[in-house]
Amino acid sequence: MEPIIVKYVEKPELNKPVLIEGLPGVGNVGKISAEYLKDKLNAKLFVEIYSKYLPPQVLMRPDGTLYLVKNELYYYKNPKGRDLIILVGDYQGMSSEGQYELSYKVLEIVKEFGTDMIFTLGGYGTGQLVEVPRVFGAATNLELVENMKKYSVYFSPSDPAGGIVGAAGLLLGLGSVVFGMQGVCLMGETSGYFSDPKSSFEILKIIKQYFNLDIDLSEIELRSKEITEITTQLKEEQKNEERKEDLGYIG
Amino acid sequence: MEPIIVKYVEKPELNKPVLIEGLPGVGNVGKISAEYLKDKLNAKLFVEIYSKYLPPQVLMRPDGTLYLVKNELYYYKNPKGRDLIILVGDYQGMSSEGQYELSYKVLEIVKEFGTDMIFTLGGYGTGQLVEVPRVFGAATNLELVENMKKYSVYFSPSDPAGGIVGAAGLLLGLGSVVFGMQGVCLMGETSGYFSDPKSSFEILKIIKQYFNLDIDLSEIELRSKEITEITTQLKEEQKNEERKEDLGYIG
Amino acid sequence: MEPIIVKYVEKPELNKPVLIEGLPGVGNVGKISAEYLKDKLNAKLFVEIYSKYLPPQVLMRPDGTLYLVKNELYYYKNPKGRDLIILVGDYQGMSSEGQYELSYKVLEIVKEFGTDMIFTLGGYGTGQLVEVPRVFGAATNLELVENMKKYSVYFSPSDPAGGIVGAAGLLLGLGSVVFGMQGVCLMGETSGYFSDPKSSFEILKIIKQYFNLDIDLSEIELRSKEITEITTQLKEEQKNEERKEDLGYIG
Amino acid sequence: MEPIIVKYVEKPELNKPVLIEGLPGVGNVGKISAEYLKDKLNAKLFVEIYSKYLPPQVLMRPDGTLYLVKNELYYYKNPKGRDLIILVGDYQGMSSEGQYELSYKVLEIVKEFGTDMIFTLGGYGTGQLVEVPRVFGAATNLELVENMKKYSVYFSPSDPAGGIVGAAGLLLGLGSVVFGMQGVCLMGETSGYFSDPKSSFEILKIIKQYFNLDIDLSEIELRSKEITEITTQLKEEQKNEERKEDLGYIG
Asked: Which helix or strand (DSSP H or E) is residue C49 part of?
């Protein structure tokens, strides 16, 4: 079989579309962000990607039907600027080789449609509950670093220390080396212990502003607040327990 | 070497044959079912499949001879309806890639013989001893979901939660995406702790009825009853021990 | 690079040579046997096999020089019968795929020289110290099973239960399925805890007799006796300790 | 995608250049040595190597920009003798296959520029803090062994016992078998517990002398002395604790 099977649902004309990636990863921050974007923008599915580099697995829909795990590309015709291509999916590639091959294939496809810029979205796992998650950035060139700072993206000289692993990094790395594209990775701070819409909310505010999108963020804001409540509660319980322990030592 | 070596023993003319798969897996439910079917229908071997995606291993026959691990296709000319192709084997593919490649190859082969429908058989591991195993289903389309419900196949909006991993899922996933086939996966409930003919018996009753087969199920019914006896005994021992423990608390 | 690099040192004319394999494995029984055979027969190196399926490693000679890990083929022109090709090496293939590809390549090579019969040598690990190791057999066909019984090869209806994994099995499996060869695997009983020349000695006696070889076994017999002494000592120490423990319970 | 992507920054004319390799490994001894050499010789980057055999990862620069993990070749035109090609990189290949493919590709590239000799640099992990690290050697031929002994390289009949794993071994192994090159591996003794410039210093002294290089080693000497101080302190602390424990037994 072909290692990667690309099925075109449609071949739209697009205006220098920017690729926005959000696949499963730390805190599912990227996936939640990209899927929210796609849903709220009512973006259209135009490419399905199946591959032996994904797990040998089908997933269930609630109605009893099944579908093969895949990655998908959606497009959004942006009346106020450059169009968007949004990459979402059930899984990332399972091996180093699979990661490279899948990222390369996506870049080949979007190149055809005129893409020369990429935004990859992900989580930056800190292992700690965060009050207001910062959005860390990394870009393919200095100009873009400076530009993104205007949107409150935080560039640290030492983070993320281990670099960026997976599609969020590879699309930018291969994109710049092989396809002459530029781009930026936005990483929302997250504990990494659970799916974190709060971190995604911070990323989406930047995306909305940067691309001047007409998009309603109230739903993700609500989910974000729920996370705040839960984590506030968790923190108080922690404090109470610590206090009890302290008393124990005194009494 | 060719990654997959296909040896034709025979090239029969078949009447829109339905592929029925039963390879090793949870509780060996699929394997037991498909091999019982093949034996009782006196199905004929026509394809042997060897591959570097299977383990590097030969297996022993009691007479001291050995054979390379393989998958096999048998055919059954059904006087009362569509013919059957039955897929059995010693192992499934060892890696993601191997799973995809082997499933794809089987689909290519059966396509040649006119197959456009697939039944995959497997176990659904619950981790608990079951009195009467239900048969869960998952299908490539809603029409088939509705149709299978008539045969007491149980479709749950949330099971199996993790989807279906391996050949039982892939044959349906790749079959529908690449080869335009439809199909259903039948999963017999099983503890998953041992080879479970009881679960296979429930699946075989459905297969017999659906395909209107002239097949004797008395032997698998007997093996099924033996399992019932063993598990009943196990459960009573469990209860007795729990009672003892309860008395211990009271006494 | 080519996945497997074959370097011919020489292309000898051979008389229907039988392939004898002895690569590293359980108790190194096969390796010890084949290397002893090659050394005592003064067999000539004619093929070197390098491959990315072997570990990425060089090994040291005592003089400070290094060499890339490899498999090697030696030939022996047998004045009393069929010639021999002996396969030895530093490692077996590292993955399923590597095992298949390397075995296939060896079969392709020896086929060129007229081979239609294979002897593979290995250990059968029992986890227990053995007084006189039996030599278990498995063959590609019944005739050969019967023939080998005359040489005191032991065929069990249930051993080895897990079949034969690795080159010793694959050469026979692929050899018979793809290349129309026949052959037998000789497995010397061994604890599997250490390199076991005692088990190799039993195999070599059969090989010597079967091929009517003019070969001196006194050296391996000596090494075999040393193993006997060590294991006898170990067993007595075990007994003494058990006796002490027994006394402990009584006293 | 091509498994290995080679980007030429420049195609210099070189005078029978010797390849010097220093990739990450035990104690990072090779990497530290080769990078120091490249920096102090002001060697010029001429080849970038990207590959799916490297991790799917980008790394960060302090200015917020990112780059795809890679291997690099630098050249140095040596006024006093043969030119040098220096191989450095972020990672070695991730799998056996990747190791072989990447080493093979590097050899193909340097062959083009006239290379017939290779020096690979690495650490020899002993698990113990060393006062003055020896430099162990292994070479492709006896002449080179004898030659290197003049430069205080230590050849042991039994070290390294496990051979040499990874690029440092493979470049020499494949280089001699496939490309007719000769070469030597220099392994600086190191505990292996931390990055060890002290071990690199010993290697660099040999390289400087052998190639008659005009290179300032004062900086690495300083870093080497820092390591000496730290390890001396560690050893004294160990001794003191052992003394305390001894007193504890007596008191």
From this structure: strand C44-51
> What predicted TM-score, i.e. pTM, was given to this entire model?
0.93
Whole-number pLDDT of residue B5: 98
Q: pLDDT tens digits for C17-48? A: 999 999 999 999 999 999 999 999 999 999 99
CB atoms within 10 A of CB B126: 17
Closest C-alpha among C9, C34, C11, C14 to residue C24:
C34
Q: b/e map of B146-182 (b: 16 or more CB within 10 Å)?
A: eebeeeebbbeeebbeebbbbbbbbbbbbbbbbbebe
In a domain, D180, yes or no: yes
In angstroms, the Cα distances linking A14 to A105, A248, D169, D173 are 19, 67, 51, 52
Could you count the other beta carbons within 10 Å of the beta carbon of residue B226? 11
Residues C138 and C174 sit within 8 Å (Cβ to Cβ): no
Q: Do chain B and chain D touch with ≥3 beta carbon pairs under 8 Å? A: no
Say how far apart CA C63 and CA D159 lie, in whole Å. 11
ipTM: 0.92
Q: Do C169 and B66 touch (CB under 8 A)?
A: yes
Distance from CA of A10 to the nearest CA of B (A): 16
**Domain assignment of residue B107, yes or no:** yes
| Closest to D28 measured CA to CA, from D171, D226, D187, D174 | D187
Q: How far apart are CA A199 and CA A29, in angstroms?
A: 6
Sheet holding C57-60, edge to edge: C66-68, C57-60, D164-165
B8 touches chain C (CB under 8 A): no
Q: What is the per-residue pLDDT across A139-166, written as a single tens digit (0 to 9) for each?
A: 999 999 999 999 999 999 888 888 999 9
What's the pLDDT tens digit per position in C184-211? 999 999 998 889 999 999 999 999 999 9
C77: CATH:
3.40.50.10900
CB contact under 8 A, D60 and A166: no
In a domain, B121, yes or no: yes
Residues of C in contact with B64 (CB under 8 A): 137-139, 142, 145, 155-157
Q: Which of residues 46-75 of B touch C (CB under 8 A)?
A: 48, 50, 52-60, 62-69
- What is the phi-psi region of residue A28: left when phi exceeds 0, alpha when psi lies from -120 to 50, beta otherwise? left
- Taking only residues 77 to 136 of chain A, the set having a beta carbon closer than 8 angstroms to any beta carbon of chain B reads 94-95, 98
Question: How many distinct structural domains can be found in chain D?
Answer: 1
- Per-residue pLDDT reduced to its tens digit, A199-226: 999 999 999 999 999 999 999 999 999 9
A227 in a domain, yes or no? Answer: no
Q: Is A173's Cβ below 8 Å from some Cβ in D?
A: yes
Q: What domain range is C196 assigned to? A: 4-219
Minimum CA–CA partner of A158 in chain D: D62
Asked if A60's CB is within 8 angstroms of B96's CB, the reply is no
